[in-house]
Amino acid sequence: MPVITCIEDLRQIYQRRAPRMFYDYAESGSWTEQTFRENTTDFAKIRLRQRVAVDMLNRSTRSTMIGEEVAMPVALAPVGLTGMQHADGEILAARAAEAFGVPFTLSTMSICSIEDVAAHTTKPFWFQLYVMKDQDFVSRTLARAKAAGVSALVLTLDLQILGQRHRDLKNGLSAPPKLTLPTMMNLATKWRWGMGMLGTKRRFFGNIVGHAKGVADASSLSSWTAEQFDPQLDWSKVARLKEEWGGKLILKGILDAEDARMAAEVGADAIIVSNHGGRQLDGALSSIRVLPSILDAVGDRVEVHLDGGIRSGQDVLKAVAMGARGTYIGRAFVYGLGALGQAGVTRALEVIHRELDISMALCGERDVHDLGRHNLLVPKDFE
Ligand code: FNR
Fold first, then answer.
1. Is the CB of 355 under 6 A from ligand 1?
2. Assuming Cys at both sites, which of 116, 152, 218, 301 could form a disulfide with 264, CB separation 3.0 to 4.6 Å?
3. Which residue of the set 86, 166, 211, 276 is catalytic?
4. How far is the CA of 328 from the centre of ligand 1 (A)?
5. HSE on the CB side for 169, CA within 13 Å?
6. Residue 243 CB neighbours (<10 A)
């Protein structure tokens, strides 16, 4: 294995190895990509306070997210088409997360099915739901998740309408990829991805498309999404889905204090402060920047989690010290998976854990629960 010391190393290997269409799918944001960029650059504006001469012998990053024990306050975010980045991608990522002791979230838009992932893991995982117009599809999917022992439902609220990503349109991203001359040439030189896609079509259709009413083909992902996703999702539907699910519920895609209050009102166990990794409303503020206003709005009525722009353990430290109970990584684990399969996801988690542990110690903290605003210098306009 090449020497990998940081997430950026994994990104570079992934970029070298992956066909451009798949790299672009992961590494892009919507429209001008301002929000996508600021998710990471805003983390860099928060600085850490160094402390010295503190006993650092016994340290712990262990915590809980919605009551589940985690080796560190980091979960794998739901990422659609993970199985196109590597054969059995969702299974490999779930196994890496399970071995490390952090939650894995399976996307509705997965290649491997809920049942596939359940058959290859031993602990319950989380499942992310996109609400489709077809209510039977939603009910059947919830029933499948329950039968597979899923321990929390992550309901994504910020993708009723798909934001536009220029690169996906230009690359003609589809599931499975269309075999045009340029894609075939690209895949011929990137054989590992070609292998990864054998079975992709059958699986994706079996898993998602085949279950949604009246769909014969998912040739263009954006037009299929536009047809299927429920543009009328509102808080009353969220409440009904909570009832139907009956288990732990995490609401994903909250960026506004008023929406955070509504989520607490509905009785969610947690919310994820998220702008979908800068893939939906370009021009929205970064997640870390809105976190303080959301914490002020909900107090301790609901657990507040955050994703968007986390590329290091220092970023995790900053989010937790600002008040987030947990964080999620999206691209950081996809880079690892695309670069090196399951070992790459494990490496991404190891890198982040090590950075978190060392940075905590250098901030004078032994326990992740002791992190707080006293560890940070936060720019005034983050309030
Ligand atoms: C996503 N995200 C996402 N979210 C979701 O709820 N369902 C999904 O299917 C997907 N699919 C998806 C694909 C890809 C390629 C990316 C990069 C992201 C958003 C994801 O869960 C998370 O919010 C962001 O990835 C967090 O930002 P970072 O960590 O990627 O910067």
1. no
2. 301
3. 276
4. 9
5. 10
6. 9
Tell me how far apart the 2 most distant CA atoms of the chain are, in Å.
66
Question: pLDDT value at position 215?
Answer: 53
How much is the pLDDT for 20?
87
Nearest CA to ligand 1 atom 23: 276
**Half-sphere exposure of residue 229, counting CA atoms within 13 Å on the CB side?**
21
Question: Is 276 labeled as catalytic in the residue annotation?
Answer: yes
> Phi first, then psi: what are they for 192, rounded to 5°?
-65, -35
| Residue owning tokens 């008040």 | 323
Q: List % helix, strand, coil for the chain (3-state, nearest 5).
A: 50, 15, 35
Atom of ligand 1 nearest to the CA of 274: 23
Give the number of C-alpha atoms closer than 13 A to the C-alpha of residue 221, restricted to the C-beta side: 23
Averaged pLDDT, groups of 10, the chain, 383 residues long: 93 93 94 98 98 96 98 98 90 98 96 94 98 93 97 97 87 70 63 57 59 57 78 97 98 98 98 98 98 97 98 99 98 97 98 98 98 97 80
How many angstroms separate the alpha carbon of residue 281 from the centre of ligand 1?
13
DSSP strands (E only) in 104-151: 105-106, 126-129
Q: Can you tell me the distance from the alpha carbon of 186 to that of 226, in angstroms, rounded to the nearest whole number? A: 28
Prediction pTM value: 0.95
The radius of gyration computed from the CA coordinates of the chain, to the nearest angstrom, equals 20
With tokens 């970064």, the residue in question is 286
- Going along the chain from its start, the domains and CATH numbers come out as 7-373 (3.20.20.70)
The CA distance from 382 to 96, in Å, is: 34
